[in-house]
Amino acid sequence: MPRRYCGRCIIGGPPTCVELLLLNEETAAFLSSRQIHPTQRFSKRRDGMTRLTMTVRGTTELASWILSLGPWVKVLRPRALRQEVGTLLASAAALYAS
Description:
Layout (H helix, E strand, L loop, with lengths): L2 E3 L4 E3 L2 E8 L2 H8 L8 E4 L5 E8 L2 H9 L4 E5 L1 H17 L3
Antiparallel strand pairs: 1-2, 3-5, 3-6, 4-5
Helix pairs in contact: 2-3
């Protein structure tokens, strides 16, 4: 798989459409004030949450970034990224269960 450095990240992998649900207005305001990715699109929903979509090349680094946003972001797609983040969060939660 070809990889290249873009100044902030390693880019590699097939184009992947990512859809995130930003669960509160503060998170949406914080993220929409920055350029996360050139393809980012924010759309406010009627329930007050915001949908963030972008098309990235690979999701390895994206998973770590999503984890840094904790309980304020939910991965809607792709399914593999959602499962990866869910597994990592469950492992982290288990460290604090007792």
